[in-house]
Amino acid sequence: MSEYQKPLPHPTALTQPFWDGVRQHKLLVQKCSSCGKLRHIPKPWCANCLSQECTWVPLSGRGQVYSYTVMHRAPHTSFTPDVPFAVALIELEEGVRMISNIVGCPYDQVRVGMPVRVVYEDIDDQAALFKFTPA
Length: 135
Hints:
The chain is 6% helix and 37% strand. It has one helix spanning 16-23; strands at 28-32, 38-39, 54-58, 62-71, 85-92, 97-101, 115-122, 128-134.
């Protein structure tokens, strides 16, 4: 097997729990311990109540395409063989939105409102990626 050539996430202390969850095939987000609001992208405080206390909770991984674009130019040379491909803003059942690729579906069949579910791409022992596919 050849070495993975595409860019990978570089977790920080703040985002490490999220990426650890992805490696375990779980979508985790922060939940404010004071007001209960879910948040993604991870932040050191709640934008709703400013509390700095939170826990990490799993999401269902089910949602729908909120918006999308089709990439016709590779954002990095390693993506050149993949163009064109769809990148979407997914609204999960819990109300959190995440950006990722749509896989398992031709780019010209992606539609706003299309039901999707999370899938995982294991890169190696240290890294995995999350993507979405039609549900």
